[in-house]
Write a structure and sequence with these properties.
The complex is a heterodimer of chains A (about 110) and B (about 110). In chain A, about 0% of the residues lie in helices and about 55% in strands. By secondary structure, chain A is an all-beta fold. The chains are: A mainly beta (about 110), B mainly beta (about 110). Chains A and B meet through β4, β5, β9 and β10 of A and β5 and β10 of B.
């Protein structure tokens, strides 16, 4: 049982380049999230999804797009990378509801934009 | 929008001392969750509190949820070096987003 898998684990981009981060979960979770983590800033929500085909903006959505074409996958896209997007990105997933909704996290993607 | 504030930002304790981190929300939370992130790792779920005034214990860790469901605390008794890491609270308001506090970094001197 893999849980939540993120690819890639590391990436270096040049300013203006684009890339897609992939998150896959095998727990049949309804909710999926993308967070970025910067020193002293905690985990900030970029975008989230409450089900296949639906996405919504979080706290810091600018410069990112997402898609959830399949329930198990949640993609995070950077169309034109900027140095301010240098961060560690975490994907998470959880069940719907108010109980037993613990979030499971992937191992993270360390992205550097130069 | 909904915010979850966490204090202190950082605490450095001597091994054996107690540690407490506090979490406050600007809105009522349906539940509150606590996570631990070891250095270089990813957040791992510790516990979820749902009921007003709820108190739960996990060995040396005690978690509380406030009566108004707007605040929570995590207390560690007699810290050990294995407790090192960042502790986050997270809460979904009436809605779907899981919003995290900024976290409290705990360092333990042996």
């Amino acid at each position: 049982n893999a849980g939540v898998t993120q690819t890639p684990k590391f990436r270096v981009l040049k300013t203006g380049q684009s890339m897609t981060l992939l998150c896959a979960q095998d727990m049949n979770h309804e909710y999926m999230y993308w967070y970025r983590q910067d020193p002293g800033m905690g985990l900030r929500l970029i975008h989230y999804s409450v089900g296949e085909g639906t996405t919504a903006k979080g706290e810091v959505p600018d410069g990112y797009n997402v898609s959830r074409l399949k329930k198990q996958n949640f993609l995070l896209g950077l169309e034109s990378a900027a140095p301010s997007q240098t961060s560690v990105y975490f994907c998470a997933s959880s069940h719907l509801g108010t109980k037993n909704t613990e979030a499971f996290f992937g191992q993270g993607t360390r992205l550097t934009v130069v | 929008g909904q915010q979850v504030m966490q204090i202190p930002q950082y605490q450095h304790v001597q091994e054996g001392e107690d540690f407490t981190t506090y979490c406050n929300s600007s809105t009522t939370l349906s539940n509150i969750q606590w996570y631990k992130q070891r250095p270089g790792g990813h957040p791992v779920f510790l516990i979820q509190l749902v009921k007003s005034g709820e108190v739960k214990k996990q060995k040396r860790l005690t978690f509380q949820f406030g009566e108004a469901k707007k605040n929570s605390s995590l207390h560690i008794t007699a810290t050990q070096t294995t407790d090192v890491g960042t502790y986050f609270c997270a809460g979904p308001p009436r809605g779907n987003k899981l919003v995290f506090g900024a976290g409290t970094i705990l360092r333990v001197k042996s």
